Amino acid sequence: MKLVAIVGTNADFSYNRKLLEYMKWHFRTAAEIEVLEVKQLPPFNEDLPYSEQTEVWRFNNKVNTADGVIIATPEYDHSIPAALKSGLEWLSYKHKTMKEKPVMIVGVSYGTQGTSRAQQQLRQMLLSPDLNSDVLPGSEVLIGNAAKTFDKNGFVTDINIVHNLEDSFAAFNKFVKSNMRYLEEGDVNMAQPNISSEAKVQFRTGSLKIKEIQQIFNTLPFEIDFIDATDHFSFYSDKPDREHVRYPNEIGETVEECHPPKALPGVRAILDSFKLGTQDHVERCLPLNGHKVWINYFAVRDENGRYLGTMEFTGNVGHLVNLVKDGKFDGFPDATSGASKHDDDAEATGPAAADTEADATTGASEHDEEKEDKTE
Amino acid sequence: MKIEAIVGSNKKLSYNRKLLQFMKDHFADDEININEVKDFPMFNENYPEGEEAHDPELITELAKRIEAADAVIIGCPEYNHSVPSALKSAIEWLSYRIHPLHGKPVMIVGASIHPQGSSRSQTHLREILDSPGVFAEVFPGNEFFLGTAKKAFTDDGELINQGTVGFLEQCFTGFKKYAEEINDFKKVK
Ligand SMILES: Cc1cc2nc3c(=O)[nH]c(=O)nc-3n(C[C@H](O)[C@H](O)[C@H](O)COP(=O)(O)O)c2cc1C
Ligand SMILES: Cc1cc2nc3c(=O)[nH]c(=O)nc-3n(C[C@H](O)[C@H](O)[C@H](O)COP(=O)(O)O)c2cc1C
């Protein structure tokens, strides 16, 4: 575990610096702690030219690569010193370095309050949207009477303070580890590259984030399964209340593995016809758990007609059937005159039908019936 | 009344500076002098490096003006829900070797580009001004927050919203009365 510890003052002599040096030594087996100074940073100023921000850049880098941050703050006028505030402003400005960074606050004061008011304000600052840090809750290290706290070698002399530091550091250690994602995913060196959910996929007609694609699939009122070109079950949409309940550990199964033997010949026939290109669509109507389930298989192809896989498109159409029964579509223009109809037909015509242009304008319903027959 | 106003921002384009400039022009019967924190060095106990530590000249000059004034107005921006370091640093200088704000009537105003208008920062500033090293007499209540500051001013620096101007006048009138009472009380003491 790699931590940085920020000395919250620019003073040459500082008890808070002493405290961090002590912690660095005392907790050396648990963590590698690098003590950082705010002293060398330029005072925060939005107008400072970027070319003069080398130290800021270095400071941001150090904090950014650390697993957690310890801040030792003095108390100046019931708040944190301006020098520390300035450092935090740099960390929040443009870079958002502190975002979700685990932070432990400690403080030493000359008087008895042990920086209690400064720590309170510091917590509020760290929780503001531009800093947005994960501040360790509960544990408090408030050390008063600074002049009596350290011996000449820098060791803390009061056993109660030592115990307070140890308890708080143990809590922080746990807190940081729960934030270190790579520990959950395995060893750093074994980490796999991945695409974040924020990444976008660019289509001809626009773009979608990975997360959006997932949620669109899950929100569709029909469930979608996909069998890839090598006949492996490779995806199903995570729609709630699916008609066909699937499980993640079925992913990767072959068509044989995921169908009962009785159903296999039918499935095979469909897939073979899709691969050959003799048809692109098969539908079935099935009663399932009291639902009117409409099942569709579509051949999915690339721009050259090459078979990419089969999409199963399934849903309960009871509601649609009721709408029809209730006459909600009565008096609508007949489908035979619709432009969309023409498209349906054009898609459905085979090579043999290419010279029968007139036929292309015949009813889609006819065509659908024909298909239904085929699938029965 | 003689008032020293402090711009709590070190930025070239500052809405808090615009606000104080508006107050200076609008309350022309009173003498409001605008002070900047942007040229002050960062507070450091050991300033200046390599010499025997002492207060910067710019700070001792400001302290003299504050001591001679009847009251102080601070224009306070909000950075990370608190007081910007540039302003905090100035207050540290004014609470370390010298304490010119001790017993001085102080009014806080603030502008922010977000709707809250520096409300959280002003609360922190009150706590800071109330600490023993500063010991200012902060005008209670009368919270003046100028939110969405980018849209608040005309090109000539006038506040657009007349309701806002009215409230600022009310706060300022109240503050002058408060400052007089505090200053009279100090004379009696
Ligand atoms: C400008 C200034 C303001 C201070 N205000 C407070 C304060 O509000 N409360 C407090 O307990 N100590 C205050 N102190 C005293 C500090 O606690 C003391 O200087 C302490 O040693 C600072 O920590 P350090 O040794 O890490 O620099 C103040 C010191 C300075 C220089
Ligand atoms: C580092 C930084 C942090 C900021 N944090 C806040 C904040 O917490 N709340 C807020 O209302 N505005 C915040 N702002 C925006 C300020 O309100 C804005 O910069 C405003 O113009 C500052 O006042 P000024 O114009 O007088 O300099 C922040 C700006 C910076 C540079």
CA-based gyration radius of chain A: 33 Å
Approximately how much beta-strand content do the residues of chain A carry? 15-25%
Shape of chain A: elongated
Distance between the termini of chain B: 21 Å
Query: How many helix segments of chain A?
Result: 12
Question: Roughly what percent helix of chain A?
Answer: 25-40%
* CATH topology term of chain B: Rossmann fold
Helix content of chain B: 25-40%
Strand tally of chain A is: 13
Task: Describe this protein's structure.
The complex is a heterodimer of chains A (376) and B (189). Chain A has helices at residues 15-26, 54-65, 82-92, 116-126, 159-179, 181-185, 210-219, 255-258, 264-276, 318-325, 339-348, 364-375, and strands spanning 2-7, 32-37, 68-72, 102-108, 134-135, 141-143, 200-203, 206-209, 223-228, 233-236, 281-288, 291-301, 307-316. Chain A is of the alpha/beta class. Chain A folds into 2 domains: 2-185, Flavodoxin domain (Rossmann fold), CATH 3.40.50.360; 200-375, PAS domain (Beta-Lactamase), CATH 3.30.450.20. In chain A, strands 1, 2, 3, 4, 5 and 6 form a 6-stranded parallel beta sheet that branches. A 5-stranded antiparallel beta sheet of chain A has the order 10-9-13-12-11, with helices on both faces. The radius of gyration of chain A is 33 Å and the shape is elongated. In chain A, 27% of the residues are buried. Chain B has a single domain (2-188), classed as Rossmann fold. In chain B, strand 3, helix 3 (85-93) and strand 4 form a beta-alpha-beta unit. Chains A and B meet through helix 3 and helix 4 of A and helix 3 and helix 4 of B. Bound molecules: flavin mononucleotide (2 copies). One flavin mononucleotide sits between chains A (9, 11, 14-16, 74-78, 108-111, 113, 146) and B (45, 92, 95-96, 131, 133). One flavin mononucleotide (FMN) sits between chains B (9, 11, 14-16, 77-81, 111-114, 116, 118) and A (46, 89, 92-93, 128, 130).
